[in-house]
Design brief:
Largest sheet: 3 strands, antiparallel
Helix content: 40-55%
Distance between the termini: 28 Å
CATH class of the largest domain: Alpha Beta
Number of domains: 3
Oligomer: single chain
Shape: flat
CATH topology of the largest domain: Tetrahydropterin Synthase, Chain A
CATH architecture of the largest domain: 2-Layer Sandwich
Strand content: 15-25%
Structural class: alpha+beta
Length: about 280
């Protein structure tokens, strides 16, 4: 069995908020497998959170570029070694230029840019990942970089008519959706986009938690827990943060759609956070 180190136990504790001994036992049972240990703790009801596994100890920033016309956008994660460099204005400007180059010149030699920057600042720099969204049909893309540049969001919102895209209410909706994604961290736009394997795992965990309940009640309880799961991880089912979750994101989009006399839809999004394992 692999050694269960204090660092590994600490990492599991950070991911789940479970107790120290609970984390150690779970890791021993799962031969040091972090993801499996999270499931063990959740089934026992001692994990109050299930943060994304695979965090990496790297600093850096998220940068974005939106092309004129808001039909094309890109996010990039650029890693460096220290927070000092990550906060440097010159480094931030370099990352913005990388985002612009990747978006507008996909075949450009960004490796040469990286090498030059490494020589300039004396730290190792890596382009960890980047992704772009291009509008299909009527609509626009928008980006948001949270304070500190550790979280970045890119979203595409579609409309039935191109004239709608120029309306202030539409632009405000798109901006607000980027803030929602940054704050609430959904994993999908809607339920049909959630990996069936993930749903099955959530059902298994929910069933394990209520296995001692009356058999006739288990199905209903599990159904309720899965509904809460969807409400937490599906963007359109989340409570709309800007209105203190009094309505859902879906309801807010419907309200703006009615006001603009058009059918608006959140098509897709990206959310990058510095240090997280790429999907």
């Amino acid at each position: 069995m692999p050694e269960i180190t204090a660092a590994l136990v600490g990492k599991l504790r950070e991911m789940t908020n479970a107790g120290l001994m609970d984390c150690k036992k779970a890791l021993q049972e799962t031969q040091g497998d972090l993801d499996a240990a999270v499931d063990v703790l959740r089934k026992r009801g001692v994990a109050t959170a299930a943060k994304k596994a695979g965090r990496e100890a790297k600093d850096g920033v998220i940068a974005q570029f939106i092309a004129p016309g808001s039909k094309l956008g890109l996010l990039v994660e650029v890693n460096c070694e220290t927070d000092f460099v990550a906060k440097n204005e010159s480094f931030r400007a370099f990352c913005d230029e990388v985002a612009r180059t990747l978006a507008t010149q996909p075949t450009a030699d960004v490796e040469a840019m990286r090498t030059a920057q490494v020589a300039k600042i004396g730290e190792n720099i890596q382009f960890k990942r980047h992704a772009r969204l291009e509008v299909a049909g009527h609509g626009m893309v928008a980006a948001y970089i949270h304070t500190g540049a550790k979280i970045g969001v890119l979203v595409e919102v579609g409309a039935g008519k191109e004239a709608t895209v120029g309306q202030d209410d539409f632009k405000q909706l798109v901006k607000d959706i980027t803030l929602q994604i940054a704050a609430a961290n959904p994993i999908a736009v809607s339920r049909d986009q959630v990996d069936p394997a993930l749903i099955a795992k959530e059902k298994e965990i929910a069933a394990e938690l209520v296995k001692n309940k009356p058999p006739q009640a288990i199905a209903k309880i599990v159904e309720g827990k899965i509904e809460k799961f969807f409400q937490s991880c599906c963007l359109v089912d989340q409570g709309y943060v800007k209105q203190n979750s009094e309505i859902t994101v879906k309801e807010h989009v419907a309200s703006v759609s009615k006001k603009l006399d058009d059918e608006l839809v959140i098509r897709r999004f990206l959310r990058f956070q510095v240090g997280e394992a790429a999907a």
